[in-house]
Amino acid sequence: MVGTLALIILVLFFGKGSIGAFTSIPKWQLAGGLLGALYVAISVMVVPKIGVASTLVAIIVGQMIMGSVIDHFALFGGKHIPFDMKRLAALVLLGGALYLFYKK
Question: Mind listing the pLDDT tens digit of every residue in the chain (104 residues)?
Fold first, then answer.
């Protein structure tokens, strides 16, 4: 709520657009705000249980996996970069790092 209020104040004082323009934005683009809030909420719950380093490594591993999927299938109009053994090795090493960070 504090972040939302801060952003509303910033938009009102420094924004050059119309605050009512959000109705013309495609609904799937508005999902980014909800997913961002979910990301922050999950991070707040997970950090005390597994630690900051493990949480950050898990986030990076997830982003690399999704980035590889997006590149391989050229989603969202991106360039097609096929999934190869180098990428697989990198993901395996990142997974190993996550295991070592999480292991007690």
Answer: 887 788 788 878 887 777 677 788 888 778 888 898 899 999 999 999 988 988 888 899 899 999 999 999 999 888 999 999 999 999 999 889 888 877 77
Nearest partner of 102 among 57, 54, 47, judged by Cα: 54
Among candidates 58, 48, 62, which has minimal Cα distance to 97?
58
| Cβ atoms 68, 83 nearer than 8 A | yes
Q: How far apart are CA 64 and CA 90, in angstroms?
A: 9
The 10 Å Cβ neighbour count of residue 98 is: 20
Same domain, 58 and 87: yes
Asked whether residue 59 falls in the same domain as residue 90, the answer is yes
User: How many domains would you assign to the chain?
Assistant: 2
